[in-house]
Write a structure and sequence with these properties.
heterodimer; A: 424 residues; Arp2/3 complex 21 kDa subunit ARPC3; elongated; B: 432 residues; mainly alpha
């Protein structure tokens, strides 16, 4: 079973490269820093502690990657320090060394306690911070500092924005590459998702970093609590939201399982269908919000059966005729609609049993997700537990329905997904 | 009067004007989080202490009523404005008293400015809470001042103090040379904070709505139990508030009430809809429903109490219930609560074999069975709650009882020795 939340992504390829790059960069930066000596150790220590703490309190929203906004803001902020309060601003090597060491210091406790950790994600931060530091020092002349004059401050802020932007770009590129590799998402759509994410969460982290740098440059270490305390509060609020969201997701999954308990589908059938639907959705490069609706729709596609009479002992085989299945889909959609919060999901479920020729081929209003759920359901019925056909045979049967029953684009995608070795 | 003094001292400088304008568009900085209006606009005032001095902050707070929802009555808006002026004055007094400076002085002694500003924020919040308490006390409304302090003021004081620091940050960045541009930078964390505060509630609401919709599907199996879960959820909610449960447990109890019969999805519709007396094997199928329910919701990270309540809501106080035959205090607290409300709702709704009982009659049945079936103390509480608050009985769209059905028993219709109704296996394992 492929469960997007629990499956371990294959990180051997890009993950290894990122780790190697991070390690090489970190070690050489550390070497340079040791040779040159550390400047303004109070600031290095304070920011290092912040990064480590931020790393320790990192969190996840759904299956997307770990977020450690405080660590990111602190590391970027450290890279953007300038006088007057900071006598000698840290050079690039020192920024990288402090970020790297602090990140390790934050990850190691998580390893020991058994919390979720991902060195590759942490490594990506070291790389992007190094990039921001390099851009910043390259563009800002040595004598430009927070003098209070309007021209200086505007120029400095502008360059800070540029540096943060550079960091975001590097991170988005790396992230998109990783998504392409692990989820088999097409690179352009993976990049689009990363950029959208960077524009939302990334921008907030970047601006916080700039505020942190300005505040610290102006009033010294007193500037840290001014940014960090609100940031910490926001992060706590966000974690609370993330846990509510997880609860919600498991609620939907549990409800989907009710068809199994009621005997309408075989154990695990909904989860298998959803796993396949998600794989196809990734392959087609759907946006994240649509992916979520797709997963819910695949999970809940059978819920309408609950309102029907009892299943025959044969389970799902009862609902083989088209009319019955479409009736169940219609009921399911109205049930889901009743919740008032899953309208997209209802729309997908409503058309999930329409044959392609009478449905999507003529009506572009019907979302492609309906076609995906349709194909995923069919493939699961053929290959899933109990029916046990070989994938090749199943592909052959589905191939016979191309254009009439199934959306050709989706079937092509299924062929790729199965060809890459997708197994339930 | 305070206002007049402030007006004399205030000078209309750039920060006062721009931040005043910001306040006017400050609807941006507000969000509705549950019953509390989480307003982050006092952040602007805090910035003004450091930028233009306390007098300016007091003057600007007069603008607040203008930004408020036009649907509020004028009196209310004027009152809120006056409240803001008083809060600002209190905060200003503390800020000056603690020796907080302004403009260049802030950068010279940032520590003192920071501490003074923090104290001013706390003074602001304290003044606000005090005034609210005063109003609630004079109002004799539904919320008592104590409830307000416990439920609204106490949990928000720490976050609001923390976010107040953004005001100090705004001032520092402004004084440092960025001027008006500082607003652009600081607005981002403020907006993120506001967004985050609203997300959580949205997710919780979605969760509740989805569970309701789902429960309704399961109840389509049986016309007679339609709305039962919702009503039980309401009922346990009323009892829970009477028992003064904490916020989290109250929510959990209501969830448990809503989900207690979710396992019925695994009971064949044929059995649920069967009129008349059930065979033993059919009753056994029904007895499985608590376990099925836990199987279904087991992976949802609810409080353990929700799951144990779903599993044990058919236990009886004398130990003759199912599935585990627990007795007395061994039955989980939530399960005892739900058991009472569950029975109450079943008895007051129509069944295929009998019309709905009246509320008084039902309360007497509960009372009569308080040692055999229910927790006597909780029954006493529940009777009190229903007598005080009333009960909206089952919806009228229930079908009338089927005259042809002579005997029969619903799984939760467990009445009840002396008061008539079912006995024997339907009410649980027979004592032997």
């Amino acid at each position: 079973m492929t469960d997007p939340e629990t499956s371990v992504p294959r990180l051997v390829g890009s993950g290894f490269v990122i780790l190697l790059a991070g390690a090489v960069l970190g070690v050489s930066a550390l070497g340079v820093t040791i040779r040159n000596g550390i400047t303004e150790w109070q600031y290095a220590l304070a920011f290092g502690v912040l990064i480590a703490v931020g790393e320790m309190v990192q969190f996840r929203v759904d299956s997307s990657r770990n977020r450690a906004p405080i660590a990111t803001s602190a590391a970027l902020g450290y890279a953007l320090l300038r006088p007057p309060e900071v006598g000698i601003p840290p050079d690039v090597a020192q920024v990288v060394a402090v970020t790297g060491l602090a990140t390790l210091a934050g990850v190691v406790p998580r390893m020991f306690v058994g919390l979720r950790w991902d060195l590759v994600v942490s490594c990506r931060r070291v790389l992007s911070v190094a990039c921001a530091a390099a851009v910043f020092t390259a563009v800002v002349p040595g004598d430009l500092y927070w003098s209070g004059s309007a021209a200086h401050t505007v120029a400095l802020t502008g360059v800070m924005l540029l540096a943060v932007l550079a960091a975001a770009t590097v991170d988005a590129l790396i992230g998109a590459g990783q998504a392409t590799e692990t989820l088999n998402q097409p690179f352009p759509s993976a990049l689009r998702d990363e950029v959208v994410m960077a524009a939302r969460i990334g921008m907030a982290m970047g601006i916080s970093a700039i505020l942190l740098a300005i505040g610290t440059s102006l009033i010294g270490l007193w500037g840290l609590p001014l940014v960090v305390v609100p940031l910490l509060l926001t992060q706590f609020a966000f974690r609370r939201f993330a846990s509510a969201r997880r609860t919600y997701r498991t609620t939907v999954r549990s409800m989907a399982r009710s068809t199994e308990i009621a005997g309408f589908s075989s154990p695990g059938q909904n989860a298998r269908t959803a796993g396949l639907a998600v794989a196809i959705g990734n392959d087609l490069g759907l946006r994240p919000d649509r992916m979520e609706a797709l997963e819910y729709a695949a999970l809940l596609s059978g819920v309408g059966q609950l309102a029907l009479a009892d299943p025959s002992p044969g389970g799902a085989s009862l609902l083989r005729t088209r009319a019955e299945r479409q009736h169940a889909a219609e009921i399911g959609a109205s049930v889901i609609e009743r919740s008032g919060v899953l309208d997209h999901v209802a729309e997908i479920v409503r058309h999930s049993n329409d044959p392609y020729r009478q449905g999507r081929a003529n009506n572009s209003q019907i979302p492609v997700e309906s076609g995906i759920v349709n194909v995923a359901l069919a493939y699961e019925q053929l290959v899933g537990e109990g029916s046990g056909q070989s994938p090749e045979k199943a592909m052959e049967s589905i191939g016979l329905g191309i254009g009439a029953e199934y959306d050709p684009v989706v079937v092509e995608s299924l062929r790729r997904v199965v060809g890459r070795g997708f197994r339930f | 009067m305070v206002l007049v003094i402030a007006l004399i001292h205030a000078r209309p400088d750039v920060p006062t004007v721009t931040l005043g304008l910001l306040l006017l568009v400050g609807v941006l900085l507000r969000s509705r989080v549950g019953p509390v209006r989480a307003s982050l606009d006092y952040v602007v005032h805090i910035a003004l202490f450091l930028l233009s001095g306390p007098a300016a902050a007091v003057v600007v707070s007069v603008l607040l009523p203008l930004t408020q929802d036009r649907r509020l009555p004028l009196m209310r808006r004027v009152f809120n404005g006056a409240q803001a002026v008083l809060c600002a004055t209190a905060a200003a007094g503390v800020y000056v008293g603690m020796g907080g400076g302004r403009r260049a002085e802030v950068l010279e002694s940032p520590g003192r400015a920071l501490i003074a500003a923090t104290a001013a924020i706390i003074a602001w919040l304290a003044a606000n809470a005090l005034l609210m308490c005063l109003v609630l006390w004079l109002d004799h409304g539904a919320t008592s001042p104590l409830t307000f302090l416990r439920k609204v003021a106490a949990p928000t004081v720490l976050p609001l103090t923390g976010y107040g620091l953004l005001g100090v940050l705004l001032a520092v960045v402004w004084i440092g040379g960025l001027g008006v541009g500082a607003i652009l930078l600081v607005v981002v964390p403020l907006l993120v904070a506001r967004w985050t505060l609203s997300l959580y509630q949205a997710e919780r609401d979605a969760q509740a709505a989805t569970m309701r919709a789902f429960i309704q599907v399961i109840e389509t199996k049986d016309l007679y139990t339609r709305g039962h879960s919702e009503r039980v959820s309401t009922g346990v909610g009323m009892l829970g508030r009477h028992l003064k449960l904490g916020e989290d447990r109250q929510q959990a109890l209501e969830h448990a009430g809503l989900l207690h019969d979710v396992g019925k999805v695994g009971v064949p519709t044929r059995i649920i809809q069967k009129p008349g007396r059930l065979e033993d094997f059919e009753m056994d199928a029904i007895r499985l429903h608590p376990a099925r329910g836990v199987e279904l919701i087991g992976s949802i990270p609810f409080l353990e109490e929700v799951k144990s309540a779903v599993l044990h809501h058919h236990e009886k106080y004398d130990g003759t219930g199912y599935p585990a035959g627990l007795s007395g205090e061994n039955i989980p607290y939530f399960a005892r609560i739900i058991g009472i409300v569950d029975a109450f709702d079943s008895l007051t709704s129509t069944r295929s074999y009998r019309p709905a009982r009246s509320i008084e009659e039902t309360l007497e049945i509960l009372h009569a069975d308080r040692f055999t079936h229910f927790d006597p103390n909780l029954v006493a509480d529940f009777v009190q709650v229903i007598r005080a608050e009333g009960w909206t009985a089952a919806a009228a769209d229930q079908p009338a009882p089927d005259g042809t059905v002579k005997a029969g028993i619903d799984h939760d219709d467990l009445s009840l020795g002396t008061s008539g109704g079912a006995s024997g296996s339907a009410a649980g394992p027979t004592e032997s």
